[in-house]
Specification:
alpha/beta; Lysozyme-like; Rossmann fold; four-stranded parallel sheet; 10 strands; 13% strand
Length: 335
């Protein structure tokens, strides 16, 4: 008779086999009917229209993180799919509460997904794209997790969530050079009901989301102002900016992380957020610069992106890769 430890190993293997059988059955069904989630495809049409970035609130630095456990990092070129989730709880449960639970109860490094889409359409970034977080099992390293706030076993996302989530996913697909086939529901790659039973039955909200994504990919969609934003800030014309590109550092010592990047692109470099407001494009290095400062830059009409990672080494590696590939920005195309 097997020992207790052997029995546990056998049980684990049986569980893994069951999971693989489920995934194989899903794949066979998809191949048979030619619908639903499919394997990622990474070759969009060469003349595809650009997708402008949606409004994203970066709250990565504001969320709880484990004091000793860290997520690994990657380059954005490793990302091959976008995985759709639901939080599975009331939409009033915040990203902070989810992160606290993962850190304190599950001993995770931080929150699992990369983006959270709220019922009013607000998009929050909860992990950097270079972070290999926990949301898709064996596919963590090559995927980005986009979660919709709410439990969609009975209901469906709001119209604002579908619209803004579709914009976000389309922008990710275009930025990462992926096609619509790279968007999959969590249940397509793991034995889980996520993103809810209504994803592929009942209201089948995956269809509404795919339509929203396709509108952006085809160039027929237009940016919308979230319903809660009744007084949008009107940025000054780009001609009013006296600096083309400002590299905003949290401290002077951060400059060593961007040596190759600076040599390649020759941006204005400094730690002065006031001076950065005079730039058409601002690249924030790391997580030291506050979200409030980032918001002020956007309000001043700057095009802002943040290059961050779980460690200085990860930030340097990402900036070096951008310099090596001639990619000044991760999110702004044609610049």
């Amino acid at each position: 008779a097997p020992t207790p430890s052997e029995s546990e190993t056998i049980a684990d293997l049986k569980e893994r086999i069951a999971e693989l059988e489920f995934q194989l059955a899903v794949a066979r069904k998809q191949l048979a009917n030619g619908s639903g989630d499919s394997a990622p495809v990474t070759s969009p049409a060469p003349t595809a229209p650009a997708v402008p970035p949606p409004a994203i609130e970066n709250i990565v630095a504001q969320l709880p993180h484990h004091p000793t456990v860290q997520y690994p990092t990657r380059t954005v070129s490793e990302i091959k799919m976008v995985v759709v989730h639901h939080t599975g709880v009331s939409p009033t449960i915040t990203a902070r509460e989810i992160a606290e639970f993962r850190v304190q109860k599950n001993n995770w490094a931080g929150i699992g997904f990369h983006f959270l889409v709220l019922p009013d359409g607000t998009i929050q970034q909860t992990n950097e794209l270079t972070t290999v977080s926990r949301h898709a099992g064996d596919q963590n390293r090559e995927s980005v997790g986009v979660s919709f706030a709410g439990n969609f076993n009975t209901g469906s996302p709001t119209a604002q969530q579908i619209a803004q989530g579709g914009h976000l996913i389309a922008w990710l697909l275009r930025t990462l050079n992926l096609s619509i086939g790279a968007m999959v529901g969590h249940k397509a790659i793991a034995s889980t009901p996520c993103p809810g039973t209504q994803w592929d039955s009942g209201s089948r909200w995956q269809n509404s989301l795919r339509q929203a994504v396709n509108r952006w990919l085809s160039g027929s969609a237009q940016p919308t102002v979230p319903a809660t934003d009744t007084t949008p800030v009107q940025p000054p014309p780009s001609s009013a900016k006296t600096i083309f590109h400002y590299l905003l550092l949290g401290s002077a010592t951060d400059q060593s992380l961007a040596t190759n990047y600076i040599a390649k692109f020759q941006p204005t470099v400094g730690t002065d957020a006031g001076q950065a407001q005079q730039a058409r494009y601002v690249t924030i290095v790391g997580s030291t610069v506050s979200a409030a400062t980032e918001q002020k830059l956007r309000a001043a009409g700057c095009n802002v992106e943040r290059v961050a990672g779980n460690s200085p080494l990860a930030i340097r590696a990402l900036l070096d890769n951008m310099a090596r590939t001639g990619r000044r920005f991760l999110t702004f195309q044609g610049v």
